[in-house]
Structures are given as C-alpha cells and as structure tokens.
Specification:
2 strands, 2% strand, elongated
Amino acid sequence: MRTAIFTLMRLGPSLAYAIASIFLLSIPLLDSHPSSESVWWLHMTILPVMREPIYLLLAVPGVGIWSAAVLLMLASVFGIRVALQPQRHYRSGFIHAHIALIATGLTMGRAAVAQAGLSGFAMPQLQRSDWSFLPLSYSPLGVVLLVSVCLACICCHLTVIKRIKSAP
C-alpha cells in the first residue's frame, strides 16, 4: 500500500507534462474550430496553469507546437517509467520532478500578478501581447499540479536520503 501511494505521488510531474501537451494541442484545435465551446473551455481551463512554461518552450529557436507537444509527451511517458522504478532512476527522477516544479512555480509566480499587458515572453509566430486575466489563486488545476509536483519532489528527496543512509 505504501509503495502504491509513493508511486502515485511520483506521477505528479508526468501529470504536469501531460497537461502541458494537452494545452499545446488545444492551440491548433482552437485554430481549427474557433467557435467550439468545448475547445475554448479546454484552452481557457489550462491557460492559467501552463501559459508561461509553454511560452518559454516555444520561444526556443526551432521549437514549434508539434515538436514541443511530442517532447512533452515523451517527458510524461519517461516520468511514468521513473515513477515505476524509482530506485533505478533516482537521479533522473530528481531532475524530472524538479524541472516540473520550476515550471509550475514559474507559472504560480507570474500568474499571481494577474494583470493584463505585454507578456515578458512571446510566442513565435503569434502576437506579442497577452491580454488575458488569469486569476491562478482560484485555479483548482493549478493547486492540484503544484501539490502533486511538490509531493513528487519530496519523494525524490526521500529516495536520495535513503540511498545516502544505506551507502557504506
């Protein structure tokens, strides 16, 4: 039972990467179906949580929406493997979880301001301003992601501490 709970806790970064890839896929969906209420709901639900990390990823030269989506899906699948075999991939799991924590923390910090205006990060091939009002403090998805990624980081730290204690 304890192992299953720790495995679920270590899946937090994979959830964050999967939600980021869903957000990326919602952009072309919104372009194809601009009048669809469900596509707008999907995009606007994930927008407060994944806006800043995705804009940073898309600002890298040569990274487009499709390559970023594939990269995030691969990171999510890799996170599942790391969560199922934590003793084998403890360093990779540590890095994987902390990158997700930095991305989630960046979002929480930037969205706490929640003001309209020019974004510090611009998506290539899209407009340079972001006029969306994003009250993240009321986003249940953002809170769930932050808590799940923090729990995964704690599990990684516990694994590293356990390895240090068991070393001769």
